[in-house]
Amino acid sequence: MSGMKAPPRLQSLVEEGLIDTVVRQLMSGKEAMVYVVRCGDETRCAKIYKEADQRSFRQAVDYTENRKVKNSRQARAMAKGTKFGRQASEAAWQSAEVDALYKLADAGVRVPQPYNFCDGVLLMELVTDANGDAAPRLNDVDFTPEEARRHHASLTTEVIRMLCAGVVHGDLSEFNILLAEDGPVIIDLPQAVDAAGNNHANRMLLRDVANLRNFFGRFAPDLLKIDYGNEMWDLYQRGVLYPDTVLTGQFRRKTGPVDLGGVLREIDDASAEEAARRVRMAQS
Predict the structure, then answer these.
(1) 250 by DSSP, 3-state: which?
(2) Cystine design at 152: which of 17, 216, 221, 260 (Cβ 3.0–4.6 Å)?
(3) 171 is catalytic
(4) Is residue 279 predicted with pLDDT exceeding 90?
């Protein structure tokens, strides 16, 4: 089977025998380009991460907080933004997606099966529709109310599975979920965060869940009344969220007595800080 000429970044994978032929370009995004490739009898896809200077997406600090960097020289370089530091950030950014994919695939989450990561290229399963063609994104598909409810329910289960595995997608929407022959598959995880170690994880989870609700709510307006995000996070924080947890969709905030002492202590701390700042100003 003759394909197109392999782009330079895929050439080394062809030489290594990881890819036989490059069939066509599937998409070009702001962080990566994706090609359909043949590996023996299998059709897979190769995601080529763009170099930092070609990427328009500025790495949000929200996402990178608590990304573990093994050595302090790397951490210092990343903080300073030196060339070595940019390469280190770049590697952390790419490996965050790769790590998340392997972790989620192991946890039974519906993500493309990753096969290999080499020289900034991720080789993974090509998600296909009933005809064996590349599956469409949700935003390119219309649904009946019944289908919308079914897919919303199955994706809610996937988000729970991800959270149980300690991962929040962080950018989940109809644009990075594919509709495979046997249901939705979640893609694009370069901004996945560690649910326990990132201060923004709660906010990002709520946004992911709201995006799903709002998208499917266009086809089934009854979904718009459901609040799964707060309920999910509450169970997760209390250590009682499991992959098979069934949510009620009716989350009641605890309206018990306010911890007035705690509030007053925070006010005292803030006043003390302000007073200290004034003293320093006066002294300088």
Answers:
(1) coil
(2) 216
(3) yes
(4) no
What's the gap between Cα 67 and its chain centre?
A: 14
**Please, which contacts does 3-11 make with residues 24 or more away whose CB atoms are closer than 8 Å?**
3/37, 3/38, 7/33, 7/35, 7/48, 9/48, 9/119, 9/120, 9/121, 10/35, 10/37, 10/46, 10/48, 10/121
pLDDT, one tens digit per residue, over 71-101 is 555 555 555 555 555 555 556 556 788 889 9
Question: Does position 270 have pLDDT exceeding 50, yes or no?
Answer: yes
Cα distances from 108 to residues 120, 226, 272, in angstroms, run: 25, 25, 50
Phi, then psi, of 102 in degrees rounded to 5 = -60, -45
Q: What is the pLDDT of residue 261?
A: 66
Among candidate residues 182, 186, 238, the one with its CA nearest the CA of residue 208:
186
Q: Does pTM surpass 0.85? A: no
The pLDDT assigned to 71 comes to 54
pLDDT of 137 reads 97
Domain 13-237 has CATH 1.10.510.10: yes
pLDDT over 80 (residue 155): yes
- Examine the residue annotation and report whether 20 is marked as an active-site residue of this protein: no
* Residue of 62, 99, 129, 171 with catalytic role: 171
CB burial of 157-178 (b: ≥16 within 10 Å; e: otherwise) equals bbbbbbbbbbbbbbbbbbebbb
Q: Of 20, 62, 99, 188, which is the active-site residue?
A: 188
pLDDT tens sequence across 160-194: 999 999 999 999 999 999 999 999 999 999 889 99
Q: Are 163 and 84 in contact (CB under 8 A)?
A: no
Residue 99, CB-side half-sphere exposure with 13 Å CA sphere: 17
Q: Position of tokens 């399963």?
A: 125
Task: Quickly count: other Cβ atoms within 10 Å of residue 243's Cβ.
Answer: 15
Provide the residue ranges of all domains of the chain, joining segments of one domain with +: 13-237
d(CA 140, CA 163): 27
Which run of H or of E encompasses 49? strand 42-49
